[in-house]
């Protein structure tokens, strides 16, 4: 039996790699993939808790996370397409209209 | 013993592919590494006796979301984009932040109290006709019916929003 801590470690590592990619990459599509990476890291820990606490609610929550991730991917990629149509770049440091 | 070996294989491949997703210069390569990553996460779900989620992971993540990503990557012409440096100037800050976050989260792991164990033990799931999927369906359509309906609304909003955002502006 694999201890639950191993799953949590893996989840933390995947989440941190996602955070690092989100903060450091310039390409907006890879930034989006980093968000998916973070969601997957959280999903691993939710399913692990669901298994070890013998409760189905963790898996239900993962189902909803996947549904929201699908919606987020559709909206985000539509935003990327309209952004690329206006600016013809996918680098986030070239996009500074809002002076953030 | 066998479970530990399988976990080690899945964990090593998951960590390596997630690093490759982040580090690949070409977004198409990132998407393909992510495909491998999702398959291995689905294998991890199978190890945790979540067959329904393993299937959903492959069908929705690998089958729908990644194809959408690949479609957009191929739609945009990124020949010029992949020539420049892939990482931005705050590379070091991002690395420190990510490692610090990992340390903070993992230091709280020892403090986890063992929670109360629910009713869905492996023996109970094996004794149920239909197994894991049947129990998930039963819980979702009774206890979580309202969130399920809200999820359908979120997907409807996503459909409409994606069309509105991505369509060409009509000349009036």
Give descriptors for this structure.
heterodimer, A: 100 residues, mainly alpha, Helix Hairpins, B: 172 residues, Four Helix Bundle (Hemerythrin (Met), subunit A)
Describe the protein.
The complex is a heterodimer of chains A (100) and B (172). By secondary structure, chain A is mainly α. Chain A has a single domain, classed as Helix Hairpins. Chain A contains three helices and no strands. The longest helix of chain A has 31 residues, at 57-87. Chain A is elongated and about 50 Å long. The termini of chain A are far apart. Chain B has 172 residues and is mostly helical. Chain B folds into two domains: 1-84, Up-down Bundle (Four Helix Bundle (Hemerythrin (Met), subunit A)); 129-172. Chain B contains seven helices and no strands. The longest helix of chain B has 25 residues, at 51-75. Chain B is globular and about 60 Å long. The termini of chain B are far apart.
Number of contiguous helices of chain A: 3
Report Rg of chain A: 17 Å
In terms of quaternary structure, what is this? heterodimer
Shape of chain B: globular
H/E topology pattern of chain A: HHH
Biggest β-sheet description of chain B: none
Question: Which sheet architecture does the biggest sheet of chain A show?
Answer: none
Helical/strand content category of chain B: mainly alpha
Mean pLDDT of chain B: 89
CATH architecture of chain A: Orthogonal Bundle
What is the ordering of alpha helices and beta strands of chain B?
Answer: HHHHHHH
The portion of residues forming beta strands of chain B comes to under 5%
Work out the count of structural domains of chain B.
2
Write the layout of secondary structure elements.
The complex is a heterodimer of chains A (100) and B (172).
Chain A: H1 4-24, H2 28-52, H3 57-87
Chain B: H1 2-23, H2 27-47, H3 51-75, H4 91-107, H5 122-127, H6 131-142, H7 145-166
